[in-house]
Every structure is written in C-alpha cells, then in structure tokens.
Amino acid sequence: MNIRYFAWVRERVGVEEETIEVPGGVKTVADLISHLKTLDGNHAAAFEEEDAIRVALDQLHVEADTDLGDAREVAFFPPMTGG
Amino acid sequence: MQVQPLVRVQAADFDVAAETQRLTTGRKDVGALVTFTGLCRDEAGTLEALELEHYPGMAEAELTRIAVEAAGRWPLTGLSVIHRFGKIAPGENIVLVVAASAHRRAAFEAADFLMDFLKTRAPFWKKEHLVSGAGGTWVDTKAGDEKDAARWSSS
C-alpha cells in the first residue's frame, strides 16, 4: 500500500511517501496507524498525537474507523490550514 | 443547470480582474459578483514568507467537491476558486474565490461557504518562515474555523 505524509507528519516520519506491506490483521485506518507506530521511532513520533492526524483514502477524507478496503493510497496529515 | 466551477491549484499568482471578467464577459444575466481574496499577512513584521504545502490531486479534487456543493446550493451563474502553493511573501495573494449570480445573496453566501469549507477540508498547510531565519513553524488551526464550517449544516 502506498502511504503519503504531509506537513509536520511528513517531517516527523522523514519521508514523503513509502510503500508498505500491510499485515493481515490490519483492517481499518486505526489498525494501520497502530502498525505504522511499531515500524520505528520516527513513525512512533509522527503518530504520537494520533487524534490530531487526519486521513485520506484515495484522496477522500475518512475517519479512523474506516475500512482500508482496496484503497491504493492512504495519506496522513495534520488539520488543514489553507486559505 | 448547475454551473461547472473552475478550480485551479497553482504556484503562480492570479489576476483578480481577469478572473472576474471570465465570469461576466459577454453575459447579461449576472447581477452580482462577489470576490474574496485571501492574502499573506504579516502582523508583527517578523514573517519572511509563508510556505504553502498541498496534496497534489486531492487539493484539486477536494476544492472541486466543495465548489460543486456550493453550485448545487445556490443559483450561481459562475464560480471560480484558485489556490496557490509554494513560498508566498507578505502582501501576496494566496486564494481567490469568485462567485457570480443573478442576485447578491447567492453570490455572497456561496463565496462564504466555499471559504469556510476550503479552510477545514482542502489539503493545504502553511508553514511560517521568519525574518530572523529561525526554523519554520507549522501554522495551527483556529478553533473558530470548524465552527464557521458548522454554521452551514444547521439548515
């Protein structure tokens, strides 16, 4: 699965984009976050304030309890500050 | 029929006059035209520039979803939204919304609605670069932004 990060989430993870193998037990966005946190210290730091992080599946906003389904791209980012 | 909004996400500046003309030239049915321009602001004399990061693809898609919803809620004759990305200095333009309609209320409300949802849902993030050269700081969201967007769901 292709994962993209933006703004301070990107800076904390240390990469803009990565492809990861999703373990079988990972069904929802929240499951994926729990898995990512175990990868290394950067990921753990990026997802420390889990409630502050917004998620998009295939470029649509979703909540953490959403099933990943057959999404190809997941993006994690802070609350938006455009305009 | 609902208008097809024009949505652009670009590094370059935009020309407000050209964008308003786009929605009025050659038409006689436009009675109201509202433009909103958001600029890069420096209140304390400490800001060198804002850096606007965006999610390419989703930024355009989300702005289009918001604009299409606005065009469905109000009887508009035209609607445009342009959002810039990259480094933007104080005094420069960041975002433009142009709403045109037969009567003023629809144009005012559509532009207001669009900005409220753009603020909370369009994937853009601002980082401040200071004159002092201190490392960039990500701008925090304002509590009022969510409340502003929630105003539109009560009806």
Any descriptors?
heterodimer; A: 83 residues; alpha+beta; Ubiquitin-like (UB roll); five-stranded mixed β-sheet; 3 helices; B: 155 residues; Aldehyde Oxidoreductase, domain 3; four-stranded mixed β-sheet; four-stranded antiparallel β-sheet; 8 strands; 33% helix
Question: Which helices and strands appear, and what pairs or packs with what?
Answer:
The complex is a heterodimer of chains A (83) and B (155).
Chain A: E1 2-5, H1 7-13, E2 17-19, H2 29-37, H3 41-46, E3 54-57, E4 60-62, E5 73-77
Parallel strand pairs in A: 1-5
Antiparallel strand pairs in A: 1-2, 3-4, 3-5
Chain B: E1 6-10, H1 16-24, E2 32-39, E3 47-54, H2 58-73, E4 76-84, E5 86-88, E6 93-101, H3 104-121, E7 124-130, E8 137-138, H4 143-150
Parallel strand pairs in B: 1-4
Antiparallel strand pairs in B: 2-6, 3-5, 3-7, 4-6, 7-8
Helix pairs in contact in B: 2-3, 3-4
What is the compact description of this entry?
The complex is a heterodimer of chains A (83) and B (155). With 83 residues, chain A is an alpha+beta fold.
Describe this structure in words.
The complex is a heterodimer of chains A (83) and B (155). Chain A has 83 residues and is an alpha+beta fold. Chain A has one domain (2-77): Roll (Ubiquitin-like (UB roll)). Chain A has helices at residues 7-13, 29-37, 41-46, and strands at residues 2-5, 17-19, 54-57, 60-62, 73-77. Chain A has a five-stranded mixed sheet with strand order 2-1-5-3-4. In chain A, a hairpin with a 2-residue loop joins β3 and β4. The longest helix of chain A is centred in the middle third of the chain and has 9 residues, at 29-37. Chain A starts with a strand and ends in a 6-residue tail after the last strand. The mean pLDDT of chain A is 97. Chain B has 155 residues and is an alpha+beta fold. Chain B has a single domain, classed as Molybdopterin biosynthesis MoaE subunit (Aldehyde Oxidoreductase, domain 3). Chain B has helices spanning 16-24, 58-73, 104-121, 143-150; strands at 6-10, 32-39, 47-54, 76-84, 86-88, 93-101, 124-130, 137-138. In chain B, the strands form two sheets. Chain B has a four-stranded mixed sheet with strand order 1-4-6-2, with helices on both faces. Chain B has a four-stranded antiparallel sheet with strand order 5-3-7-8, with no helix packed on it. In chain B, α2 packs antiparallel against α3 and α3 (104-121) crosses α4 (143-150).
